[in-house]
User: Fold this.
Amino acid sequence: MDTLIEIEQTLNQLIENQTILSSLNEYEEISYELKVLEKTQESLKAHLLFLGSMYEKAPKKTIRIYEREKKRNIYLKSIHYNQIAPSPLQTFPKIFKTNSIKLRKNRLTPISI
Assistant:
C-alpha cells in the first residue's frame, strides 16, 4: 500500500511541475531553471514507471476498498497529466485502470458500472 501512496505523490508532483512549466515557458530569463524543472519531470516519470512496475509485480492479496480507490485516483491523475503534458505517460501500467471506471468524453469523472 505504501507504493500506491508514493505513486500518487509522484503524480501530484508531476502535475504541479507541469502546471508551473506551462505558465513559465514564455520567460527566457529563467531558461536554466526551466531546463532543470524539465529534467526533474523526466526523472519523476522514470520513477513513476518504476513504481508502477513494482506494484504490478508485487504479490496480490485481497484488494481492499482503499486500494481500489487509490488505484482509481492514480488512474484519473495519470489521465489529467497526459492531458496537460507535452510528452504523456504512454507506458504507465494498465493495472491502475480498474473495471469500475468508465470515463465520459473529455471528463475525468468516474462512473460506476
About this structure: Confidence is low (pLDDT under 50) at residues 103-113.
